[in-house]
Amino acid sequence: LTDQDVCDRLKNTNVRWRLPAVCFVWQLSMIILFGVFVRYNEESDTHWVDYRKGNNITSDIENDFYFRYPSFQDVHVMIFVGFGFLMTFLKRYSFGAVGFNFLIAAFGIQWALLMQGWFHSLDYTDGKIKIGVENLINADFCVAGCLIAYGAVLGKVSPVQLLVMTLFGITLFAVEEYIILNVLHAKDAGGSMVIHTFGAYYGLSISWVLYRPNLDKSKHLNGSVYHSDVFAMIGTLFLWMFWPSFNSAIADHGDGQHRAAINTYLALASTVLTTVAISSLFEKTGKLDMVHIQNSTLAGGVAVGTAAEFMLSPYGSLIVGFFCGIISTMGYIHFSPFLEEKLKIQDTCGIHNLHAMPGVIGGIVGAIAATAATNTVYGDLGLENTFDFTGPFAKRVPTIQGGYQAAGLCVALCFAIGGGIFVGLVLKLPIWGDPADENCFDDEIYWEVRQFLLTFAGN
Amino acid sequence: LTDQDVCDRLKNTNVRWRLPAVCFVWQLSMIILFGVFVRYNEESDTHWVDYRKGNNITSDIENDFYFRYPSFQDVHVMIFVGFGFLMTFLKRYSFGAVGFNFLIAAFGIQWALLMQGWFHSLDYTDGKIKIGVENLINADFCVAGCLIAYGAVLGKVSPVQLLVMTLFGITLFAVEEYIILNVLHAKDAGGSMVIHTFGAYYGLSISWVLYRPNLDKSKHLNGSVYHSDVFAMIGTLFLWMFWPSFNSAIADHGDGQHRAAINTYLALASTVLTTVAISSLFEKTGKLDMVHIQNSTLAGGVAVGTAAEFMLSPYGSLIVGFFCGIISTMGYIHFSPFLEEKLKIQDTCGIHNLHAMPGVIGGIVGAIAATAATNTVYGDLGLENTFDFTGPFAKRVPTIQGGYQAAGLCVALCFAIGGGIFVGLVLKLPIWGDPADENCFDDEIYWEVRQFLLTFAGN
Amino acid sequence: LTDQDVCDRLKNTNVRWRLPAVCFVWQLSMIILFGVFVRYNEESDTHWVDYRKGNNITSDIENDFYFRYPSFQDVHVMIFVGFGFLMTFLKRYSFGAVGFNFLIAAFGIQWALLMQGWFHSLDYTDGKIKIGVENLINADFCVAGCLIAYGAVLGKVSPVQLLVMTLFGITLFAVEEYIILNVLHAKDAGGSMVIHTFGAYYGLSISWVLYRPNLDKSKHLNGSVYHSDVFAMIGTLFLWMFWPSFNSAIADHGDGQHRAAINTYLALASTVLTTVAISSLFEKTGKLDMVHIQNSTLAGGVAVGTAAEFMLSPYGSLIVGFFCGIISTMGYIHFSPFLEEKLKIQDTCGIHNLHAMPGVIGGIVGAIAATAATNTVYGDLGLENTFDFTGPFAKRVPTIQGGYQAAGLCVALCFAIGGGIFVGLVLKLPIWGDPADENCFDDEIYWEVRQFLLTFAGN
Lengths: 459, 459, 459
Description:
homotrimer; mainly alpha; Ammonium transporter fold; 3-stranded mixed beta sheet; 17 helices; globular; transport (chains A, B, C); ammonium channel activity (chains A, B, C); RhesusRHD (chains A, B, C)
């Protein structure tokens, strides 16, 4: 009794003033910063009609909106329904999964527009960030990193902690992305390094710092029920189906987007079969485990991210997916217990298996594919276009590019682990309203829950 | 005992002959009217190949289909999954929510194609309505108004009443839309006035006329269970994610669609944070309420509808969203009880908070934004394009336009309230098979329900 | 006791070695075959930039990717979420529905890319299959046939059997498709014949061969619970909403895609009303049956498939939908019991009502519409474009085309029934791990199921 009392006093989950205060102040800051910095770019401004004439653009259809908007909407679905529902698998944390995912993504996209804008879309003539549809996609991408990290701490943190985690996550993301894409000039269309490797190790590092030795106290809630697993499949499938859009959304117009979609489609198909194979092989009587089907089937999409735009060739994509399905499912079976017991990393959704390992593989595949690129396969112009060997990088060759790709992977890892440890320490401060060990994975801490069961008189 | 007997006699919910008769006769009427009136337009007819040549259109990609089809499909998802699942939150009315939504939308889009066609797409050379993808979008929009109205009476009416409500609703919609968009030449890309204000006050007026003083008898069913709230989040998220498509679907090609999407994306992001803030602030211990998250997070999309295409600027959109999240959530907490107790308006889904107030705000924002439009900001051509200051309206200036925008809002309100009261009186006739007070919010009245609970021997 | 023991010995559902072996070996074969045969086509290859210049293509937007990718993604959603969730209606087989659907579709699209590639996309200069976005769509289409067939045997077969069924199904599909589309030169944009008629009769024939006289033993699981019916509506609605994309995805650029979308939109709207009418008419007290709403509302999309691209005219589409809603719902009420009792065909999802009958109707409507085509209605160029009366078919006239359309329907039926019986016999071999009669419709045979009910202490 006293033990729990002490705990309750230490762990005050009343976020009544803290959560509203953070939401209000941060949203007001966004408004002010947007007022100072953010404007429409030439394709979303009413001056587009003049711009068109000035640049001999014959038709409105050549507005970037029409190249990217369908992919943008698919990515948007992945962020809000995909990530949100994938995490609803816990029997009693579905509100928190889909609701907090919604909250932090809605804040994150605003902060990402600013952070990425300063690095990538700043118009030096007037000091304004000029935004269009590509910025919206990149903001969604940036948020994806933080939502991946959420998977590691799902059910163990308060919404205020999640917002803090997102604020720092987006900031770190924008810097590492700038270094990887602009300074190193590495390519990463689908973000295997920039998004997945970064997001996963960022979350795992935070979870390591926030290690809860007595998490077993809420063990009875750390699992699924039948229908929560079906809800999670909504998330899985929307992620799986729209991943070709994710990896092609900001690829080059024309063949770049086209090829990225094909590569991703194939890698994901291949992953499903090896996931099923391993899941069945390691369970008694060959039964399948929903955890694997929900997560590992997506590993191929992660791993083909960096090289999606490259001439990976269709069978190359299948090979990547083949191995990722195996590795990711083996991760759930063998590596996750090791991670928790030996390394003291509690990873609720198993993001190490879905994002971390496949992300690193994706970075390596990208480096190899870049190194192996030849004029014969790509064509002279094709090689130049695909790797943007123009301007200050006009003299770079594929073998050198491969080295920079590998360097990019290291940058992502450093930012993720260093940043994660720092943010983890910040989140350890006893002011954020996180739940006690016996209240983890329980919606009733942060949500009004009216009734759990669908029961009726006479039924 | 006798009381209930009397009630049951008065409230005969057997719709066996009435529902099939209405469906058959109305569908046959649609076939006949379509046979007389509706044909393909020049972009969906096999003569397109000749039209292209005649009009020097260089590529098939300039067919309006490619400008609008992706947005159309998103809007379609909002209508059927968005509205349908948003209303599944009731513990025992999910079939009625998603099923009747399906029925009335399927009827409504046909009747809307005719009604809107006569006003907007009539080819005077042959007296035929010529349809293309833009007509499909507009039909979906038109239906949205009726589905909003359904939210007010959810669980309290029969499917026959819903069909009658839709028939009149579409008719009224087409007339008020014609007056607002064509006669007054107001702009309303996302339909804050035409769709949301009209739909919401139409539904609220009907609900006022159909007031049930003894609705408390089915109070135990007027609430959610855990998983029905998760189902509702599917609706919420698809509405939220695809709202940029909704507001940009019929905007001008090029920058118009592009800007409308950006403005909506931002307004909605902002709304989420203030919704969470207010929800947490007004609940004991700062818990969040799913009702607010499911509904108020969408208010920004409603309120930015009219001005979506304007140079609202990114921070302007954030401001609109900021206030709408606050007002809408406050509405659920404070205004809904007042509405029910004092004004005798029973509003099952709280459409007053989600559509009515934000819709009116949207109309006002649109009027202000139009009034404030300048050549400096828009450019000469941009101003002309955005407000269509051409033909008979070539001499109109922004300040005048602002006045007409405000007039448009008044027209929407008048049609909604006047029409709603009239339709409410029609629906009061005791011939439509509506449920008794103790049977409201219960699927078993109109649906074969086999089994509620997932129970098994030994489990 | 001994009876069940014998049964359990006969019916060993341990798929531990068989399922992984099939998945691994088949996936490896895919990799090898893709390595030998599959390459990017000119629009997804880095040489696109050269191809553009060589062919005077002015803009990247004319890459086929931009014409078809939005439709492709919609089709992709139909395959994985649409078919997957439509089948989750069983109270205890939702994992199998959505999970096995996922597995066989992921394998099927790979095998389809090869099979269809050999027939349609083989570059004879280098012996390679060249793939682009249209191939991805066609692979999804091909898989749709097998998923339809899955509906007939849902809950009664093992995942290994499903994979075998898919392997043969795709193979047969590719051949019948080649004969119908290329040899007979019949048109079938939405696949009423090629996909639906074939898939449905293929599945029904298999189910006929696999007839289980004692299926009543698992009767208690062959039904829905409240929330599983709501899950199924997710599938229904995504199929319904995206069907216009399905029927237009591989139609001609420009007016072809545009018209196919309009026709499908209208046919489906009409079907909803007659489905509701018949469902209400034949139930006691006029209640609606979720089975009908989930399935028969889609019949119009099936039946308008072949003629979607033709000048069916809007009212023609409504008429097709009108009758299909009636026939399909009547099928569920009257024909399904007859099929099971008299013809010994157990059809879990009622695919005979949703795909078989509407598919045949679609083939007939297509034949009639082709026969009735005139230069007056289509225009000279329009007629040539729509029916591809070019090359070796330059002299074909509409009346002859109508005959070939009808011949195509017969080919689909022959391949389906012949192939289905053969595959059924293969699946009867006692080596595939199918469930005993008393274990049908039960996820616990092939899935780790942790907990069924959402129960909590004190709740």
